[in-house]
Design brief:
By secondary structure, this protein is an alpha+beta fold. The protein has three domains: 6-121, Sufe protein. Chain: A; 129-186, Orthogonal Bundle (Arc Repressor Mutant, subunit A), CATH 1.10.10; 206-279, 2-Layer Sandwich (GMP Synthetase, Chain A, domain 3), CATH 3.30.300. Helices cover 43% and strands 18% of the residues. The chain is built from ten helices and eight strands. It has helices at residues 6-13, 63-76, 81-85, 89-95, 104-121, 143-153, 158-165, 175-186, 206-227, 256-270, and strands at 26-32, 37-45, 52-60, 134-136, 141-142, 230-238, 241-248, 276-279. The chain has a three-stranded antiparallel beta sheet. A three-stranded mixed beta sheet has the order 6-7-8, with helices on one face. The chain has a two-stranded antiparallel sheet with strand order 4-5. The two termini are 25 Å apart.
Length: 280
Amino acid sequence: MWEYTKKVKDFFLHPKNAGEIENPDAVGEVGSITCGDALKLTLRIDKETGKIVDAKFQTFGCASAIASSSALTELVKGRTLDEALKLSNKDIADFLGGLPEAKMHCSVMGKEALEAAIAGYRGEEMPPESGEKVVCKCFDVTEEKIRKVIIENHLTTVDEVTNYTKAGGGCGTCIPDIEAILRDIWSVKPVAGRPPESKKPKQLTNLQKIALIQDVLEKEIRPRLQADGGDIELLDIEGNKVIVALRAMCIACPMGGITIKGIEEKLRELVSSDLVVEER
């Protein structure tokens, strides 16, 4: 289980500034539910002083994502836009007393949402992601993002890149590309390792589908929930309906409904596109 600071736990269990500003001056949206993390940041800006007077967030993600998003809103309030842009993802993590290395991508997401919101407010165009080369297709991470995060955080290994961007944390086929980017930037030695084969068979019998659902829940979903103090129990499978119950810290999580949606998306991705997850 990850070791979370007292402040991370507090900002997760009692998030500050959760919600959405009505008719906001600036909006920044990054990530996607399909890829596992998503954040919407809304800002109220004093046009005379150029200062951020209010900030709220809505996020889909783990305890670190909720805590990082909440911390970001606290950090930006009272700052001018230029001052806010100087905040790094490390500043967000430091404000929380640190994040587990494998959860640093949550602070990166916050930084990206802030940049997107301010760029939109100023009428600046963010680089179109559709035109960028996607290196990690599992999490839709572009080469430009990987390079930016590597340089800003002085990353030198594939594991670090995965921790900060999630790239390489899925099927693993993009690991050689990540190694090549690292070598190009720092001339580091390639990291050995072969990507695992895809878990999704081409055709499934009913028994195979049930077995694969159980396998994905146990190996893909449950460890991630347990890492954040939560848990999940498979209650039943009725045709294409997967009935589950959230346990431990997931019971009190304000994002429980979104968690169920994320589980459903993962099962549809790895097992069958017609699956529906229901919580009881």
